[in-house]
Task: structure prediction
Amino acid sequence: MSLYDGLAGVYPEEEQDRHAVQMGDSDYEDDEPDQSTCEATEDTTPMDVKKGKDIQGIPWDRMNTTRDRYRQARLQQYANFENIPNSGRNSEKECTPVEKGQLYYEFQHNTRSVKSTILHFQLRNLVWATTKHDVYLMSYYSVLHWSALTREKQEIIDLQGHVAPCEKHHGNFSEGFYHTQVSTLAVKNNLLVTGGFRGEIICKFLDRRGISYCCKSTNDDNGITNSLEIFEKPSGSLHFLASNNDCGLRDFDIEKFQICNNFRFAWPVNHTSLSPDGKLAVIVGDNPDGLLVDANSGKTVHDLRGHLDYSFASAWNPDGRTFATGNQDKTCRVWDIRNLSKSIAVLGGNIGAIRSIRYTSDGKFLAMAEPADFIHIFDVDSGYSREQELDFFGEIAGISFSPDTNPVRLVEAAPALQYFLLTQLQLQPPATSQTTVFFSHTIPAPASSSSLPNRVTESLFVGVHDRAYSSLLQFSRRRFYSYLDTAL
Result:
């Protein structure tokens, strides 16, 4: 078996021009939606990993190479796509030194009963978590909901055939769409929005039957929807931003089902992120320089200079002072609005462009995803100087933190009650030589409160696209008590 045969993540990022890529031209077209070999029994749990199983279920003991040797070959041979030659190599000297080997998130589950897929090699925002148990993702021509609690999937929208709105609104494309190729996805506040290769917009409220709204955001032949962001205005009205390849950024008022702003830029807009207060927006696209603009007028507040290639990702820290941009020069730059003359950190990847960026909702961590194999999680409070690296094999369809980052606390109670609460919260107390009698059972007493972890209240979901090992990975945030001092 050759090196690029039968292993996960074995193909380099395609070198097609984004302006011409369609599903029929993609290297992914040979992935048929056959779930027969990916039953739930092939899922991987932490217990399986403790017994030596690979988190993706790759049987390395039956391969003609080891994981370490394959990783080294992958690092050497993966081909990063660049619009500006040598941008990745030239950016390396600017990267901020980091201390690797941290452990902020632990492996929780890998399910192969859902296959995460992508249609466009540069657009990787196809996974969205709404709680620590609920995640939405693209799987071929289906928008799926996966419950990490029940381990069940549900099809939300079938895009293979005809999709048409069931509500009457001004501007609604009543004819609907056929065989829609989805390039990007967003889910928030009970609203799910998909964007298509030809400017299609499809809106569905998760608490209503059917599709609420369909439209074409542009009739431009090069109008692919590159990214979507759902947000609330200060008035409480629900909106979303659509970034398009026709150089447009459109603000949709979802309550009135109409475009209320249409900003134009000098280059295709690949990604937009709105500041927490809704006043500023980060715009990145087919230009090394990004823009910080006034969200209401679209006027440029400041240029963002430093990247060496085109950018496809951005995200705001919830603190509203800092934000990050991801680029094909294999770096993520962190910026501070109080001094935009240069970035405050330059975070480097291993093999490819930074295609997706997410902050946790408490702003403690930033995650950046490469096109394949690696996700980097940085400790924000350390000045981005400490990092955990998630290492697997396969193209990354998207990453998403669940929005629930507030820790659940245990009461300051007797050891037996602490133990009971821990078991109810599905936590494993540390083993000690002491015992405590509780009801008629003899059980080990917990150690000192400083060593007791919090209940996991946040998940990181990762969609992995691969010919053999497509799946949805779930990691859980680690927390530790300084003291059991807060009531449930």
In short: Helices lie at 46-50, 67-77, 87-91, 415-424. Residues 1-41, 407-414, 420-454, 481-488 have pLDDT under 50 and may be disordered.
